[in-house]
């Protein structure tokens, strides 16, 4: 177990805790008779991962920045582990204890394990190791939002509190289910006659998101086109971004999240911009699009779409049928 330390301040205590973690790893290596040599440690795998076109370089820019920070942490805390130790199932306990050292921020703890697991998978693929003992380590963050959506009345309230530019972005998010990173990077060249089509950030362009311009998506794009044309008619050269701020500049991911959070907080709704992806799933279903196709649009597992549609769309339809029957029976009477 990691030892908990106290100190003059939080920074001092955390530094002592890190040092304790490093001692644990060194003690483990010593107990296994390991004497790590240069090029024979986790640090070496991390260096290769950073430089490989199949490693860090393959990630989107926004993801790469966060992964670089975690690679530095893993290198510092665990880099001295030998290849021999990495192939020993008992090292799994070291990784779990390392994760638990961040349990005050469970989402970050899980992110760290995610990066470590990917580095070890890279090492296995490159035949630097023979197993990935971090595979299957469970998450400790329990706030599962996978089946959460923003319902119509909530969406209307949020839109009423949002700025005009944010309102258009939020409506498009709710209608298409595009991820935040893809939303803010949409270009007019991505808009086709009846759909939006663009390579996704998450796949670094290897996958293409295709969203039909049905329902409010088509309406939003038409409104954005009118705004753009008005700028052109006034002699201005508008930005090529589909969604722009009040200043006419492209949205940044964090800025769009903040705009959404401000509007949601104003009306007392505790949901996130990402929850609009579930909203889009229900709207696609209401338009008659099969669940399997919705899963393709959103890049989700079909079972996840099934759960959302069953919970929000099917339940609502059944409730309406029951109410209609009740009203019909009363009228007949």
Structure description:
The chain has a two-stranded antiparallel sheet with strand order 1-2. It is elongated and about 65 Å long. The longest helix has 31 residues, at 302-332. It contains 14 helices and two strands. The model is unreliable at 1-5, 32-38 and 329-333 (pLDDT under 50). A hairpin with an 8-residue loop joins strand 1 (195-199) and strand 2. Helix 2 runs antiparallel to helix 3 (61-78) and helix 12 crosses helix 14. The chain is mainly α.
> Are there runs of 5+ residues with pLDDT below 50, and where?
1-5, 32-38, 329-333
Assign an overall shape: elongated
Please count the beta strands (DSSP E, at least 2 residues each). Answer: 2
Distance between the termini: 72 Å
Strand order of the largest sheet: 1-2
Helix content range: 55-70%
Q: Can you write the helix and strand succession as a string?
A: HHHHHHHHHEEHHHHH
Overall radius of gyration: 25 Å
What is the assembly state of the chains in this entry? Answer: single chain
Q: Structural class, please?
A: mainly alpha
State mean pLDDT (0 to 100 scale).
81
Major beta sheet, specifics? Answer: 2 strands, antiparallel
Strand content: under 5%
Task: List the total number of helices.
Answer: 14
């Amino acid at each position: 177990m990691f030892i908990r330390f106290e100190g003059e301040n939080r920074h001092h205590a955390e530094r002592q805790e890190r040092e304790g973690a490093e001692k644990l790893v060194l003690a483990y290596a010593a107990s296994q008779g390991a004497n790590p040599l240069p090029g024979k440690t986790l640090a070496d795998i991390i260096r290769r991962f950073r430089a490989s076109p199949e490693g860090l370089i393959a990630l989107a820019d926004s993801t790469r920045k966060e992964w670089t920070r975690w690679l530095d942490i893993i290198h510092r805390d665990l880099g001295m582990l030998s290849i021999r130790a990495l192939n020993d199932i008992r090292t799994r306990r070291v990784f779990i204890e390392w994760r638990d050292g961040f349990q005050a921020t469970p989402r970050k703890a899980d992110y760290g394990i995610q990066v470590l697991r990917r580095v070890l998978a890279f090492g296995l693929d490159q035949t630097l190791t023979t197993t990935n003992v971090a595979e299957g380590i469970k998450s400790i963050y329990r706030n599962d939002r996978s089946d959460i959506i923003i319902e119509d009345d909530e969406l209307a309230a949020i839109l009423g509190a949002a700025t005009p530019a944010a309102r258009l972005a939020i409506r498009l998010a709710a209608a298409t289910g595009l991820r935040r990173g893809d939303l803010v990077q949409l270009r007019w060249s991505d808009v086709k006659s009846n759909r939006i089509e663009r390579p996704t950030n998450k796949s670094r362009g290897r996958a293409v998101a295709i969203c039909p311009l049905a329902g409010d998506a088509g309406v939003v794009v038409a409104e954005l086109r009118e705004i753009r044309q008005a700028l052109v008619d006034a002699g201005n050269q508008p930005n090529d971004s589909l969604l722009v701020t009040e200043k006419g500049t492209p949205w940044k991911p964090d800025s769009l999240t903040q705009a959404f959070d401000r509007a949601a907080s104003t009306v007392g709704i505790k949901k996130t911009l990402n929850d609009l992806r579930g909203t889009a799933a229900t709207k696609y279903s209401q338009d008659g699009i099969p669940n399997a196709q919705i899963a393709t649009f959103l890049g989700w597992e079909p079972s996840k779409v099934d759960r959302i549609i069953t919970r929000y769309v099917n339940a609502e339809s059944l409730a309406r049928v029951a109410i209609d029957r009740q009203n019909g029976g009363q009228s007949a009477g």
